[in-house]
Amino acid sequence: MKDTVITAAVKRRELWIWLTCFIVANVVNITTIICYATPWYEIFTQLGYVTVLSVLLYVLTVVVRLVWYAVRRIAPSEDKR
């Protein structure tokens, strides 16, 4: 089996992408707290749901990035005329 090396730059980039998803999920949570006039301690009590939502957002971004990569690999390049 072939060994795969994941560089520190790739790990850092993926961590930043997930952190962005986590922040977006927190913003959604805060928005719903304001819209539905619920207590502010729900920021902490709903942390599990926020984490799950951030993972779902991350998976969605991975799927979109994989589709983008596949389309770029399949589509003919303009340079190869």
Radius of gyration, rounded?
18 Å
Please tell me what the overall shape is.
elongated
Portion of residues in beta strands equals: under 5%
Helix content: over 70%
Number of strands: 0
By secondary-structure content and strand pairing, the structural class works out as mainly alpha
List SSEs in N-to-C order: HHH
Which stretches of 5+ consecutive residues score pLDDT under 50? Answer: none
Average pLDDT across residues? 93
Show the helix and strand layout.
Blueprint: H1 8-36, H2 42-45, H3 47-74
Helix pairs in contact: 1-3
Summed up:
The protein is mainly α and 81 residues long. It contains 3 helices and no strands.
Characterize the structure shown:
The chain has about 80 residues and is mostly helical. About 75% of the residues lie in helices and about 0% in strands. The chain has three helices and no strands. It has helices spanning about 10-35, 40-45, 45-75. The longest helix has 29 residues, at about 10-35. The radius of gyration is 18 Å and the shape is elongated. The relative contact order is 0.10. The model has no long low-confidence stretch (mean pLDDT about 95).
